[in-house]
Amino acid sequence: MISGIFYALLSATFFGFLGIFGKYGTILKISATELLTYRFIIGSLFFILFFLLKDRKLFRIDLKNFIRACVAGGIFYLLMSYFFFKALEYIPASTTSLILYIYPLMVSILSILFFGIKISRSLFISLILIASGCILIFYDAFNRSLDLRGVLFAFLAMLVFSFYLIYVQKTISNVKPITFSFYVILTAGLSFTLFNNPIGIFNLNNKQIVLVILIGIIPTFLAVMLQFIAIEKIGSVYTSIFSTIEPIVTVSASYFFLDDNIVIQQVMGMFMIILGIVLPNLKILKKRS
User: Fold this and answer.
1) What are the residue boundaries of the EamA domain, all occurrences included (predicted)?
2) Contact residues for 164 (Cβ-Cβ < 8 A; gap 6+)
3) Which of 42, 87, 102, 238 qualifies as a cystine partner to 96, CB 3.0-4.6 A?
4) What is the pLDDT of residues 138-167, one digit of tens each?
5) DSSP symbols for 188-235
6) Do 83 and 140 touch, CB atoms closer than 8 A?
């Protein structure tokens, strides 16, 4: 149990640094398409190496799920990642991450509208908390006169990610999640090569090369792999609960590494969103106990 919690926390921490690395990409003058191309290609290479060393059966996927992974990676993940990294060009990493983390509210709304999901009392309270957190975050964004282009890109990233989660939940079956995720990442990387020549990595300077390697390993390969290890050890519910430290990591790291000015509205909004995410999961755990 303890090891599973550790892996979940470590995975969330690594995911939390995605926005930090992305922001450094803008500082080092690497375009969004360049950075994403290198991120997914390098991440895919490490997954290939991991599968070869651990179990080559992890490569196996049927044609139907392979096509679904191509759609998920070549459309949803490509757009979500691009919008997220474009947002980082205009607004702080902390704000970008917090707007992205509104996705549970959007997923719930879409599920209610299109799939007839009923609203329980705990879900209603959860949605109120997340919505309140959203209001505080957007109020802070407008109060500080942040570039509206960044806010729009972050919102689009959140919207596409919400559709991606629903698509994956409703379509994939009879395939290992880590295998499906590998093909999503691989497809996203290959899709980005249509917009950016991956050979361009050899033209980068030393700082840029270090950054693209780190972003391909830490918030891509390691974060995903550790997440699935955590799920195997403690289950998806516990993993999702402990993964809520991700925005805390991003906001804290933004303050320490990027000198972002963190204000009380952001902090309050962040904790309201986290509480809204954790609440329904606690209800599920109570039923299991």
Assistant:
1) 3-138, 149-279
2) 72, 76, 77, 80
3) 87
4) 777 777 778 889 999 999 999 999 999 888
5) HHHHHTTTS-GGGGGGS-HHHHHHHHHHHIIIIIIHHHHHHHHHHHHH
6) no
